[in-house]
Design goal:
The complex is a heterodimer of chains A (317) and B (320). Chain A is an all-alpha fold and 317 residues long. Chain A contains 14 helices and no strands. In chain A, helix 1 runs antiparallel to helix 13, helix 5 crosses helix 8 and helix 11 packs across helix 12. Chain B is 66% helix and 0% strand. In chain B, helix 3 packs across helix 4 and helix 4 packs antiparallel against helix 9. Chain B is elongated. Classes of the chains: A mainly alpha (317), B mainly alpha (320). The interface between A and B is large, with 45 and 38 residues.
């Protein structure tokens, strides 16, 4: 067990190294030199000045040296300075990260709240009309891109009904009520796809679980269906769901960036897109690496929890 | 002849032709059937009405996209009528503009059809690359095992840790150009790992089958087994996933276009149309609804067809 955790952690470190190196190389090798973002076009005629700036930002060293230096700084929490504002990238990210995370947490929480009963129910009613209707709706939810869902929500609940603001963000420090009002629609837009995914996963596991003998014996004892479903059937069926929730964080991350753009929420995603427009490579690189590392870490944690929960996995690996 | 074939067919039904026929093995099909043993009619007839509708919709979209230049009377998707004084912005459906016009007076129907072209070319070429590269690498990993497998799978795991949307946005930003060709090329860097993973799982289970053992027993070379036994079983299994892949990639393309990071404007794309209509949602909601519905129906159709294919495959393997 310990050996396996160690091997997973080694792989985690290796993956992070590879991913950061590839991102770093791409930033530095591809056309579109950082000089273009640092110095206005007309000032670029001045060779000496350009050279001075290159030296100052360490752009003349070999790639591997720059990567080593960047990595050394990154480990200490310094991801470089923004090419546009000159501020440390880390400051801006830590300021925005809680917003992105809040939306994700609310979205996952809400999805589970809906998907767990729905998945259990459709699994219980397998093949009946109610199952087919809900499963059909779930498949439809899966086919809607999150930005379309978000747009529909904005149109109905913000523009027509005026229940929620269409765009913008209230920080938690402004009070929980206004904060929840701004988080509701973005989280819901993300949740629709997640609900569809979770429901499908739980449903198929539930169908398998309900065929087990102990369910039959519980039924023979005369327990009510609802009791059997939630007390006997649900727990063993949740395993795959836990994994899927973990693995789906990646898709969710992609989704939350788009949703932030759509709802004009000042999170990581919106900053990423504005950095792209300003050609602020340092910022783009930092956010890309942050997201990727976050994803790899979440995956490793999911794998490890799964092993802890299900002894069978420990043996086969 | 009857539609049953092979040695398990009831003797009575075959008896009339028995004398004239030579036994060609269990896989031989009756001569009256098509090459694959499946006819369009028999396939279509077994679909639910919803799946039939999805199939028809996809055929319609693909045909319209392919033949867009030949459709008589279809407007130029980039022609802004109001600039030349012969069109209105945000117009409702009329005889000349069946689905109305957008906020710069371009024909919505024409833009939908040309937008389908972008979506389909992008997703289809990536699916092809993913299937070919991923199918080959996955088969090799699953059949040869050993170091090759460890190495390939470590590569796949690392690659998959790069979220495709972020990766595409990142690389195209660094490249500084975004036409359809660049998007397809950059996208294909990110599609193959998931296909490799699935192909490997299939190849693993195929490798354990008796016919592979039998082939090895009679001294077939490993390369020949790979080409004659593994590939022919792996690639059809990837088909259902390819349909899901189409759905995922169409969503990816439209999301990129929505963010303004897809094909460059004014090239029509579904995501781009929605993005543009978003600004005038309260004035005229239709320019947003049409592309959204088209996008949804296309993605849903691919998902539905993939489900249908999976169920069919499951039913067939259960029957064997």
């Amino acid at each position: 067990m310990l050996k396996m955790i160690a091997s997973r952690l080694t792989r985690l470190v290796l993956t992070v190294l590879v991913v950061t190196f590839v991102t770093f190389t791409l930033t530095n090798v591809l056309p579109g030199d950082a000089v273009n973002a640092l110095i206005p076009i007309d000032a670029q005629q001045d060779r000496e000045f350009v050279e001075q700036v290159r030296e100052e930002w360490g752009l003349n060293d070999p790639l591997i040296v720059r990567y080593g230096r960047w990595l050394g700084d990154a480990v200490q929490g310094d991801l470089g300075r923004s090419l546009v504002t000159g501020q440390p990238v880390t400051d801006e990210i830590t300021h925005r990260l809680p917003i992105t995370l809040e939306i994700m947490v609310v979205a996952v929480g809400f999805s589970l709240l809906v998907a767990v009963p729905l998945g259990a129910f459709t699994g219980y009613r397998e093949g009946r009309r109610s199952d087919r209707v809900f499963s059909g709706v779930a498949q439809a939810g899966l086919s809607l891109p999150s930005f379309v869902t978000g747009l529909i929500l904005i149109y109905v609940f913000a523009l027509k009904l005026h229940w929620f603001p269409a765009v913008g963000w209230n920080r938690l420090s402004n009070g929980i009520g206004p904060n929840l009002k701004t988080v509701a629609l973005p989280a819901l837009a993300l949740a629709i796809t997640e609900i569809a995914v979770y429901t499908r996963v739980l449903r198929s596991d539930m169908i398998a679980t309900l065929k087990e003998n102990y369910i039959l014996s519980a039924r023979a004892k005369g327990l009510t269906d609802r009791f059997i479903l939630f007390r006997h059937g649900l727990r063993p069926s949740l395993l795959t769901l836990v994994t899927v929730v973990g693995l789906n964080i990646a898709a969710l991350l992609g989704g939350v960036l788009v949703i932030e753009y759509l709802f004009a929420i000042p999170g990581i995603g919106k900053r990423l897109f504005s950095a792209i427009q300003q050609r602020d490579f340092m910022m783009v690189q930092a956010i890309t690496i942050l997201i990727t590392v976050f994803y790899v870490v979440v995956n490793t944690i999911t794998d490890l929890t799964y092993m802890v929960v299900d002894p069978r996995i420990r043996k086969t690996n | 002849m009857s539609e049953s074939s092979g040695p398990w067919a009831p003797a009575g039904r075959l008896s009339g032709a028995m004398g004239k026929r030579t036994y060609r093995g269990p896989w031989a099909k009756s001569t009256e059937r098509s090459f694959t043993g499946l006819s369009w009619k028999s396939l279509f007839g077994k679909m639910s009405w919803l799946t039939r509708f999805c199939t028809l919709w996809l055929i319609l979209v693909i045909l319209a996209a392919a033949l867009a230049d030949l459709i008589p009377g279809l407007a130029d998707p980039d022609y802004q009528g109001f600039v030349f004084g012969d069109g209105k912005t945000n117009e409702g459906p009329t005889a000349s503009h069946w689905l109305g016009t957008d906020n710069v007076s371009r024909d919505i129907l024409a833009r939908l059809i040309y937008g389908a072209r972008v979506s389909l070319i992008f997703s289809f070429s990536l699916v092809i690359v993913g299937t070919l590269v991923g199918g080959t690498l996955g088969s090799i990993a699953g059949y040869f095992r050993g170091f090759t497998e460890t190495f390939l799978m470590a590569l796949v795991d690392t690659w998959l840790s790069f979220p495709a949307l972020i990766g595409l946005v990142f690389v195209t930003t660094m490249l500084g150009m975004r036409n359809l060709l660049v998007l397809c090329l950059v996208g294909s860097i990110f599609v193959w790992p998931s296909y490799t993973r699935i192909a490997r799982a299939v190849a693993l289970s195929v490798s354990g089958q008796d016919f592979v053992t039998a082939a090895r027993a009679i001294g077939t070379s490993r390369r020949r087994i790979l080409f004659r036994e593994i590939f022919p079983n792996v690639f059809p299994a990837l088909l259902a996933y390819s349909l899901v892949g189409m759905a995922i990639l169409i969503i990816l393309e439209s999301t990129l276009s929505f963010l303004g990071l897809g094909v460059e404007i004014p090239t029509a794309s579904w995501g781009g149309m929605i993005s543009q209509a978003r600004q005038d949602l309260l004035i005229n909601v239709w320019p947003a609804i049409f592309p959204a519905v088209t996008l949804f129906m296309t993605v849903y159709s691919f998902n539905n067809l993939a489900d249908w294919l999976r169920q069919r495959a499951a039913a067939r393997s259960a029957a064997i």
